[in-house]
Amino acid sequence: MTVIRTDKWLLDFCENPIDLCQKLKAQFDEDVRSSDIHQHLSNHGMYRQAPMSGEEWIGRLQEKNIWQTVRREERQLRTLWQGPDIPVFIFPSDPFNQTLWKDQNGKSGLAFPDKLFLFVSEKNSENEIRALFTHEYHHVCRLNSYRKHMQDYELLDTIILEGAAESAVRERLGEQYTADWTAYYSNETVERLWKHYVYPNRTAHIVSPIHQQILYGHGFLPKMTGYCTGYYLVNHYMEATNATSSDLLTTEPTTIIEKMDGA
């Protein structure tokens, strides 16, 4: 795995993020435009416009040693999980995205089987960066280890993917560095969501509206329903079997839920 020195890219192209994304075209399909790449990444937390001069903004990130922190983490986790060697791209998060700041303290990530993106702020602590990378790289490892291709994922696959990744954060760094959504609801509430909404729709395909509605908790459903349920299911399985985050990389979702009532 290589942590790309995107800080050097940013010093040249920070104020023109679409031009910056031109440097990512080799990572995507031939016919994908740099504007499409930026739109996709900004939908997941990348900045849309710089709030100040590029030199000042990127200088603040460099002072936090973010690239060095991620490089150290990827060496440890690649060894621990026998993970793939992929490029890691670090960019500033969107300073104007109020939802991102409220829900995730201004940080997010995006994982693919063959690459990983982190969107961070100079206000994020070192352990927040470590937690974010742990979550996203666990995704990468499971996407490469689990038998099913992501385009074929169903709701159960997705919520277990998310729950396993955040359980890896808890295992490495402790509950204080897990995402806020892990503590949104009581166990009783999550069990009710599982039985009444998630389990009956567990085979909903990844591109179906109901898959996204349940995963993020849109409409009448509580916020982050799928994420919270996945985390609960994985924790329940880990406690029952003494499984580790490494074990979760290849564990079938049906195995994880087989001890749950209603499954």
Automatic annotation (TrEMBL):
<dbReference type="InterPro" id="IPR018728">
    <property type="entry name" value="DUF2268"/>
</dbReference>
<dbReference type="Pfam" id="PF10026">
    <property type="entry name" value="DUF2268"/>
</dbReference>
<protein>
    <submittedName>
        <fullName>DUF2268 domain-containing protein</fullName>
    </submittedName>
</protein>
<feature type="domain" description="DUF2268">
    <location>
        <begin position="66"/>
        <end position="258"/>
    </location>
</feature>
